Amino acid sequence: MGLVSTPATVLKTYEYSETSKILRLLTRDHGLCSAIAKGARRPRSRFGGLLEPFSDGVATFYVKEGRELHTLSGFELRRERQALGRELVRYAGAGLLTEIALRFASSEPDRELFEQLGRSLDRLVAQNGAVETAVLEETWRLIVRLGFAPALDPCSGCGRSPAPDETTHFDLVGGGIICDGCRRESAALSLKALAPRARTELALLVAGAADATVLETIRFQRNLLRDFIAYHLADHRPLNSFHFLEQRLG
Amino acid sequence: MSVIDDLASEFTRLPGIGRKTAYRLTHYLLKIPPEEACRLARAIEAMAERVRRCSICNNLSESDPCEFCTNPTRDRTVICVVEEASDIAAIDGSGGYRGLYHVLGGCLSPLDGIGPEELNVDSLLARLNGEVREVIIATNPSVEGEATATYLHRAIGSRGVQVTRLARGLPVGGDLEYADGVTIAQALSGRRGM
């Protein structure tokens, strides 16, 4: 295929040999891929401080068929997000978003996923207050984009839309809500009681409409998101960055 | 598995060594005089047996406490915090620092599951005993290094100790024309009066 250029976000970097770095990139046109930046760790490297996690730019690399590691020839910086390192909850949130992209994006190009990740990271940089809400909301946006949106209405058992003041249950296995009536008939062990307020706030988060709201059920939402990711995306194992986020939030 | 395969397999466990390089190193060792190969083996064995972590600063040393912590000529009012023991050689080799060191053992990394609990932060805080007036945070100039510095600043800040961070900007002898935008922006924001 030869030399290609594509917008890319640096998800993670690894030191390689004495002078090089290996990058995991989410690219607009080539999906998730890896590239080696030779000499990037030399003090006077042309890559300098460009190849930092969360940075956006246009990556130019040589692609060889059948190879998984490409050779980076250039990276034209479009947006650096070093500010994320200056506040630990933002940093943890950005880590969570990039870990989700690393673990669950594919090598097939997904323009919308790429652009969503960029918007989500931008929001974490710019968010004024309610940072935890922003982290949860942007995480749900990525999950929805990856095709794992939970079904919040109607009940996945009987198909009835629950009343606004009705307590329902979130079925982790089914990935949606079930009403109290269906719960009695269900043998599912993966149910979490969903009070009306929690359901309303979950719907706001999943729809991306929570904005800067300080959520009343924020801890519940955090636990639910952690369990949802672990069950549906991560082979029942919580993500490292989610654990880091929880430690920062207490 | 033959002895050759066994050694090559051990080499592949080292960072940056793939299968081909491992076999190249193995065959090199087979070509040199046996006493040279044995000398290398003894050096590795001695290192593994004698080198340990300093119980004060977590530096790697043959003695505990290490040579920096026991040296009476070092300035004991300043501690330079580094990510890895190998960073000490770079800073001390510069000749511009005569204080003490503290090795964190890494930096905060959500993706790798490294939080403050995995770093040597508690032992650093325990060293801030009144004699120390300044802590220089010399973590790498990366997002991870910045996040680690931010955490340390918060953790140390309330103890009445001055916290400073290594300056960031253009390398000495570098060429402005070829510097990247991030480095130039850092140099501009950290400019000094003359």
From TrEMBL, chain A:
Residues 1-78 form the DNA replication/recombination mediator RecO N-terminal domain. The keyword Chloroplast does not apply. This is DNA repair protein RecO. HAMAP family: RecO. Keywords: DNA damage, DNA recombination, DNA repair. Belongs to the RecO family. InterPro entries: ARFGAP/RecO (IPR037278), DNA_rep/recomb_RecO_N (IPR022572), NA-bd_OB-fold (IPR012340), RecO (IPR003717), RecO_C (IPR042242). Involved in DNA repair and RecF pathway recombination. It comes from the Bacteria. One of its GO terms (cellular component) is bacterial nucleoid. Coiled coil: none annotated. One of its GO terms (biological process) is DNA recombination. SUPFAM superfamilies: ArfGap/RecO-like zinc finger, Nucleic acid-binding proteins.
UniProtKB/TrEMBL annotation, chain B:
Belongs to the RecR family. It comes from the Bacteria. InterPro entries: DNA_Rcmb_RecR, Rcmb_RecR, Rcmb_RecR_Znf, TOPRIM_dom, TOPRIM_RecR. May play a role in DNA repair. It seems to be involved in an RecBC-independent recombinational process of DNA repair. It may act with RecF and RecO. One of its GO terms (molecular function) is zinc ion binding. Transmembrane segments: none annotated. This is Recombination protein RecR. Residues 77-171 form the Toprim domain. A zinc finger (C4-type) spans 54-69. It comes from Candidatus Kutchimonas denitrificans. Keywords: DNA damage, DNA recombination, DNA repair, Metal-binding, Zinc, Zinc-finger.
